[in-house]
Amino acid sequence: MCRVIAYYRVSTDAQGRSGLGLEAQRQAVTSLCASRGWQITAEFTEVESGKRNDRRELAAALHHAKVTNGTLVIAKLDRLSRNAAFITALQDSGAKFIAADMPEANELTVHIMAAVAQSERKAIANRTREALAAAKARGTRLGNPNGAAALRRAAKGNVAAVESIKGNADAFAQDLAPVIADMRSKGLASLPQLARGLNAGGYATPRGGQWHPSSVRNLLARLAA
Fold first, then answer.
1. Residue 62: C-alpha distances to residues 11, 33, 80, 151 (Å)
2. Lowest mean pLDDT among 22-31, 117-126, 165-174, 202-211
3. Taking the domains of the chain in order of start, what are their residue ranges?
4. Does the pTM exceed 0.85?
5. Is there a contact between 86 and 53 (Cβ–Cβ < 8 Å)?
6. What is the mean pLDDT of residues 4-15?
7. CA-CA distance, 183 to 191, in Å (whole number)?
8. What does R_g of the chain's alpha carbons equal in angstroms?
């Protein structure tokens, strides 16, 4: 029975946390192994760009395959790498690996597919650079031209909102100032006593709740300020 070491790779942390892409890869590998009676003995998952060749989980998976005389199985060739030289180096090292999307591929086929994938990646990068350069030559401003203005407006809006809340709280405190003075004249001096007096008189807090010693303390501090 073939001993399989499954290797999955996603490019971002978000994909790794959400499982986006991982489940499809796992399904592809599992289906291939089930159809051939192979046993998955270990699984390795990597969150890393395909452009990088120094991948710790891949190295661990290959080492595990070597010491257990197993075969590395991936869902698609581009999950391993889009770098033709990297694929060639793997082949030269003697590591056994199979892509579930083309399990019958020989070394030549794999190398050609890797070369095509690498060429496609370079073409996409070149087209992106050319498009950006053309847009810049036309005078197009790259990025969001209103981004800074939007941030400034948001900041001003936040300041205005904070000032409005503060003003309302100050006005509320001033409305209660005569009530506090009257209770103090009747001997209600402590925070608990004032809280009970406000609640007994039907005075609600700014949020419509009951008074507590801590909220009375805040009220007195605002009046003192």
1. 19, 18, 11, 49
2. 117-126
3. 3-133, 167-224
4. no
5. yes
6. 77
7. 11
8. 34
What distances in angstroms separate CA 19 from CA 16, 43, 129, 136, one per listed residue? 5, 15, 31, 38
* Residue that has been written with the tokens 């698609």 in this structure: 76
Give the CB-side neighbour count of residue 89, counting CA atoms within 13 A. 11
Q: Give percent above pLDDT 90 in the chain.
A: 18
If one compares 2 and 213, the residue with the highest pLDDT of the two is 213
Tell me what pLDDT residue 191 has: 93
Give the whole-angstrom CA distance, residue 40 versus residue 99: 14
| CATH fold group of domain 3-133 | Rossmann fold (3.40.50)
Q: Is residue 16 pLDDT above 50, yes or no?
A: no
DSSP assignment of the chain equals --EEEEEEEESSHHHHHHTTTHHHHHHHHHHHHHHHT-EEEEEEEEE--TT----HHHHHHHHHHHHTT-EEEESSHHHH-S-HHHHHHHHHHT--EEETTSTT--HHHHHHHHHHHHHHHHHHHHHHHHHHHHHHHTTPPPS-TTHHHHHHHHHHHHHHHHHHHHHHHHHHHHHHHHHHHHHHHTT--SHHHHHHHHHHTTPPPTTS----HHHHHHHHHHHH-
Please provide residue 46's backbone torsions phi and psi, each rounded to the nearest 5 degrees.
-120, 140
In this predicted structure, what is the pLDDT of residue 130? 80
